[in-house]
Amino acid sequence: MRREIPSLRQEIRADVLTAYPEFAPVFTGPQASHIDVAIEQSLTAFVDQVARPSPPSPLRDEMFRALGRTAAEQGYSLNALRGTCRIGTRLALHRAKKVSRHCDLSPLFMLSFADTLFGYVNQLEGLAIEGYMEGSTTVEDDQDGLRRRLLQLIASGTTAHTSLGELAERTGWQLPEQVSLVALSPGARPARTALAPDVLVDLTDPQPALLLPGPLDAVRRASLEHALSGTLAAVGPTVPLATATDSARWARQCLALAESGIIRDGPVVHCENHLLTLLLATDPALLEQLARRELAPLDGQPATRRARLTETLRVWLATRGTAAQIGEVLHIHPQTVRYRMRNLDATFGPQLTDPDHCFATEAALRALHLRRTAAP
Prior knowledge:
Elements: H1 5-19, H2 24-28, H3 32-51, H4 58-73, H5 78-103, H6 107-139, H7 143-155, H8 162-171, E1 178-184, E2 200-202, E3 209-213, H9 218-228, E4 233-235, E5 239-240, H10 244-259, E6 268-270, H11 275-281, H12 284-294, H13 303-319, H14 323-330, H15 334-348, H16 355-372
Parallel strand pairs: 4-6
Antiparallel strand pairs: 1-3, 1-4, 1-5, 2-3
Helix pairs in contact: 1-3, 1-5, 3-4, 4-6, 5-6, 7-8, 12-16, 13-14, 13-15, 13-16, 14-15
């Protein structure tokens, strides 16, 4: 079994994540390496015990108590913890059967092996439950920690599993039908007293956030403005609970655009007012590629001339106005506009009458204009 351990560890990891997606932050976060080590060491220790029976290692015992404590402190259910042990047992036994067929081992030996495996996993599960109970005692008084965990689960998209409902029940928080996620600038310290008691707050994350349950009405907006008191923040659109991760993602993108000066109506920015800007500005590399393709006919022009023609083209696509109207926007003479438009017509040809090209060109030019006019 020794050479099977690395691939078996990966298989257990993948199956646990499939069965319990709420464990994704643990398997991908700062603790990921510790989890991988714990799985691998538990498998190695079992194979060692089969080969050379010996008393259990105190280090192994404490490792599994620590895993149980962590599960409790982070708000995972005891059923989920037990379920991961069952998944590991099932996969390990399945792999052992494959090896036994390859090595032509007797059914009697495999029966003994399976009994030993079940006994070993029962030990590990007992240690993990012991740690879970210790952690639960600590967590009972840490309602803020449970509410933070609840916010993290919802923002990461883990809204379909029963653990979310269990955690909400433990915190006395009623699961809403709709939510709005609010992204805060690092170091933000909103006034808790100005927020309603049902607002979830996580200021420990590198990307601090709030969760507003229910409709984002005028009362919510006013209390949020008061609580943030000038802190830069972005409010994601109100979405169904199951798609809260979209609201969180858009809020963070909107906050980044506000920090870069592309969006300037803060300090509290509402994504609903900037959906087109979000669409145009959240993939700069792709927009550069689009602009390079659509503006290729201007490649041979000197930089100054290219800039003038590009700006004239942007205003014409945005307004489809007369030479006088475009000249008023650009602060130039209408005759100059007509001269530039003749140049553009000669340079782009049929591209300026093709709806798809016009739409792509306008999108690229709007995005470039947003970036150029961003506040410092």
